[in-house]
Design goal:
The chain has four helices and six strands; from the N terminus they run αβββαββαβα. By secondary structure, the chain is α+β, with helices and mostly antiparallel strands. It has a domain of about 110 residues.
Amino acid sequence: MDETRARFLAAIAKQLPAERIAEAHLFAAIRQGGVESGVAVIALEQEQVETPPPDEEQLPTEAPAALEAIAEADVNDALGEDTDDLPADADDESPYADAEPVAVAAPAAPRRYVVCTARYRHTLKGPERGKWEVTVTEEADAPLLTVDAVVRGVQRRSGDVDETVRLSGDELRAALPVPATP
C-alpha cells in the first residue's frame, strides 16, 4: 500500500470508529492540475443502542374490568356474533389442540450497515503545496451486497480500468499506522 493510501486510511480512522468498520472500498486516485484526489466507500457496523428493560412499576399488573369488557365487546362486534347464543361446549378445546405446531421460519432480513463516503484532496504543486483535506460523510444504510453492487456500478460507469481495493475491517485496521506510545 502506498503512502497516500495509508495516510487516507489513517485520516478515515480518525473520523470513524475503526472497530466498527466492516469493509472499505478504495477507488484509484486521480491526478489533475497539481492536485490528487481519491474516494472511498466505507461500511460501518450499526451502532448498538441498548434499550433498558421497562421498570416493573410501569407495567400494568392486571387490566381493569372495564377495559376487559370493552375488549370482549370489540371482539364480538368484529365477529358480528353474540357469544350468548353459542352452545355451552363452544369454549371446549379444539380437537386439533394436541397437534404439534408447525414451525415456519421467516426469512431473516439482511444485516444493514451505515454507508459512508470519504474523499481526500492533496495539493501536489502550487502555492498550497502539501495541503491535505479529508471529508467523511454518512450517506445511507444498506446491506453489504448492495454496497458491493453500487461500487461495481460506479466503477463501470466511470470507465475506470483500475480495480477498486476492497479491505475487510480487519485488513483496514492492520494497515493503520501503530500510534507511538510515550
